[in-house]
Here is the input.
Amino acid sequence: MNLRRDVFQAIADPTRRAILILVASQSMTAGTIAANFGTARPTVSKHLQILTECELLSKAQNGREIYYQLNPQKMKEIADFIEPFRQMWDDRFNKLEAIMKAYQSES
Amino acid sequence: MELKTKIHAQDGKQEITITREFDLPLALLFKAYIEPKLVEQWMGNTVIKLENKPHGSYQFEKRDPQGNLLFSANGTIHEFIPNQQITRTFEMENTPFPVQLEFLSFEALGENTSKLTMHVIYKSVAYRDQMLQLPFAQGINMAHNLLQKVLNQFK
Here is the structure.
């Protein structure tokens, strides 16, 4: 399987998005990250590998431990700061509007 | 197409304001926030608890098909005035983000149009900026393809 390792593929996966949020303000070891998900350690390792390959996460050696941290530079490639946030809310509110219109015509 | 949702985020402030105008009567917009079945539909989360009253609390979560918890959030409702105001806290569990304070104001613009103003206050400027930089943090529950569609526009 030869997947394209880009940031968009990386964040398409909900577990990987959860990992990015987890390490957003604090670097963590693979073990700590895995402990937060209750999934098999190899599964988390695979996610970390993908996130590292596309540079969303960087690794830092601290003694015998390897810590993963967010790479804000790369995050900027996804997010032109506020626009994606606004777009996220716009999509969410569009959904609300559509659902409530359907609800209105039902009742 | 002009986007209906506007965000006001002043540099160096620990707050943001999100406004949105809806083609919905005020009562229907408000209902989308208080009926668990409806909240689940547009938020994409499971509603564990939603007590719409002062001193009430709420709890949302999202699990993957294997049952692993991907997202969970909770908060306390401080003020609840039907068709007008919800003041509440919001906290994403198992994340580094501290609790935030949200003032949701609902108003009628016309018979079939309404407006929501969300005033959100964060613990610090740094936390606000981090939250804005992770647009999918709150939308972690978003459908896969929906997120992809949004992000594709920024390629």
User: Anything to note?
Assistant: The domain at 7-79 of chain A is CATH 1.10.10.10 (Arc Repressor Mutant, subunit A). Chain A has six helices and three strands.
